[in-house]
Structures are given as C-alpha cells and as structure tokens.
Design brief:
Layout: E1 7-8, E2 12-20, H1 22-27, E3 37-43, H2 63-70, H3 72-75, H4 77-83, E4 89-96, E5 102-104, H5 108-115, E6 122-129, E7 134-139, H6 145-153, E8 161-165, E9 170-174, E10 180-182, E11 186-193, E12 199-202, H7 218-224, E13 234-236, E14 245-249, E15 254-260, E16 264-267, E17 275-281, E18 283-288, E19 291-296, E20 300-303, E21 309-314, E22 318-324
Antiparallel strand pairs: 1-20, 2-3, 3-4, 4-11, 5-12, 6-9, 6-11, 7-8, 7-10, 9-13, 14-15, 15-22, 16-21, 17-20, 17-22, 18-19, 18-21
C-alpha cells in the first residue's frame, strides 16, 4: 500500500441567492459559470457532495473511497471506529452578501431519530466583514417557548435574538439547538459535523430563485431549539506569533489558529486523528518525509492520521486554522 500524503480536494461550489463574488476574487474559488458563490465545500462526506482528491496519485478518488481503502490511516483508528467510512467533519467557505435565514440544527439524538443522520454543531471564523456586519446567535435572556411562538406569529423573531457585531478574526461557536443567522456582508470559514440538516425558521420574506417563498421548517425547529442558549458567544482570536491558540474545543472538533513567520515543527503522536489545515492568509509549505506540499490562501488540506510529524514553513507570514478530533472526547 502506497504511503499517504497531505491531500487537497476539488471544492464543491454552491450558487446561493445570498452569495457574491468575494470567494472568487479573494480566495481563488472558480465559480464554474455560477453567478453568485454562496458556499465552497472544501472537504465533504455529505452524500452527492463527496470531496474528490485533486493532487498526487490519489487524484480522482473521493473521500469515502479513500477511507474504505486506508481506514484509520486516514482518519485515526478511534475516529474510524466511531464513524466508519464517513468522514466526520464538513468544512466550508461561506460568503453572505445578504442575511442568511434564521435557523437551527438538531442535535445527534434528534437527527438520528428523524433523519438517521448526525446532528450539526458548528463554528465560524470570520475572514472578511463590512463595517457593522452582524451575527444573530442565541436568544435574549428570558425568552421562553411561548415568547418565541408569539414572535414567530408576529414576524418579529429577529427582535428576540442576541446580535453581535463582527470583525475579521472573530469566531463563534454554535452548538446544535442554538438559534442563529449569518448576517450580510461577510466571508467566513464554517467547521461543522458532517450533516446537511437545517431547520429554516424565518427567511426575511425572501423568494427562492424560482420566485416562490422559501420553505420553512417551523414545526421541526420547535423541538430542536434549546431556549437556554442565550447571550454572547463571540470568541476573539488574537494569536501570538508562532504559537498555536485554541479557538474552540468540543466533542466534535478542536480548532486552533496559528500565525507564523518561521518554521514550526508539529507532532501528532498524542492524538489519534486526522488534521485539517485551512490557509486563511499567505502561503506555507508542509514538509514530511523529505517531501513538501505548498498550501496557498483559500486552500484546505487533509493530513492523514498516519503522518505524525510535519514541518510548517511559511512563505513570509501565514495564518492557518488547524482542526482535529480529540479522541478523548469520542
């Protein structure tokens, strides 16, 4: 069996009514003729949206096929034991030129019961934002099911939501059950469980691309909402140069940010997991076994679990997000 290497994938580009041009202009995403890129799925095991390798001798194989062959050498033995051939995370770039819908995602228990799927806990890291751009996240303190239902009837859901002004470098953790909406005027990275289940609660009376009202899921959403998810959730990431800083640590993923201008040696002997690198500024080289792979702004790379030691070499200065699963939480 040939040795594995850092894997890149062909992005899956999604046209959205609320999308724009920034992912094409600033992050080198090819729209493929689509007018507005709303999402670029960088690493996906969602059915009908399986990521396909773009580099090296495994080019043309999808993520599911890789795991079927390489098992825990790709994902880590403990991760493979839990998730089998399904890669457990979905990585996206998102651009919102308009407000996205107010929505909620079910947890694992509800998603399995209703959809035979995983729930959706997620986080966002803000890459670009217009002045005054905002995230709707969680309720105001004291919002009950009755207050929520009245606001829903009166078209005033946004009035009972916590609103936070965002700037590049801010991060937000959104566990399943927390009501939320991404506001207009921003580009972000989304890291989430492998799930495409969204319960849309309100969509600002927006029409779909065929000029019909967009489907809402208000009844399904009611059982999924956690009314105790209130208040601020902004995480301000100010990483010290050449030192990883943790942004989010939860049972589904760990995300660190690294800003660096000199070589960093990384060893992953203490984790039994794949590692994902997302280059958000500059470019760097991954060095392993006397080989290198260049990673540029906007690119996502999957480091197989069998590769335990790498050297990250910036070209000038670079910033990356580092994502893995802590097997102690599995």
């Amino acid at each position: 069996m040939s040795e594995l290497y850092p894997l890149k994938f062909e992005p899956v580009i999604k046209d959205k009514v609320w999308g724009g041009k920034a992912l094409e202009k600033h992050f080198r995403k090819n729209p493929g003729g689509l007018p507005n890129i709303g999402e670029s799925w960088e690493l996906s095991a969602v059915a009908d949206n399986l990521s396909v390798v773009s580099n090296g001798f495994l080019a043309g194989n999808n993520i599911e096929e890789l795991i079927e062959v390489y098992l825990g050498d790709i994902t880590g033995d403990s991760v493979y034991e839990k998730f089998g051939n399904e890669f457990p995370l979905l990585i996206k770039f998102i651009e919102a030129r308009e407000d996205l819908s107010i929505q909620v995602h079910p947890n694992d228990l509800l998603a399995k019961k209703r959809h035979q799927a995983y729930g959706k806990t997620e986080m966002w890291y803000i890459l670009e934002s217009d002045k005054g751009s905002k995230i709707y996240t969680g309720f105001h303190e004291g919002v009950t099911k009755e207050i929520y239902e009245e606001a829903l009837r009166n078209g005033k859901i946004a009035d009972i939501l916590n609103i936070e002004i965002v700037e590049p470098g801010d991060a937000f953790f959104t566990p399943a059950g927390r009501i939320h909406a991404i506001g207009a005027g921003m580009v972000l990275v989304e890291i989430q469980q492998t799930s495409d289940i969204t319960y849309r609660i309100s969509d600002w009376n927006r029409k779909s691309q065929d000029n019909n009202p967009r489907e809402l899921h208000t009844e399904l959403a009611l059982d999924a909402i956690n009314f105790s998810e209130t208040g601020k959730s902004k995480i301000s990431a100010n990483p010290e140069l050449n030192k990883p800083e943790n942004i989010v640590s939860c049972e589904f993923f760990n995300t660190d940010i690294i800003r660096f201008n000199k070589s960093i040696k990384k060893d992953y002997f203490s984790i039994d997991s794949f590692v994902v690198y997302i280059c958000i500024e500059g470019e760097f080289l991954i060095g392993w076994d006397n080989q290198t792979e260049k990673v540029s702004k906007g690119e996502t790379v999957l480091l197989p679990a069998m590769i335990k030691e790498v050297v990250l070499e910036p070209v000038g200065e670079a910033v990356l997000l580092e994502i893995f699963i802590d097997n102690e939480n599995l």
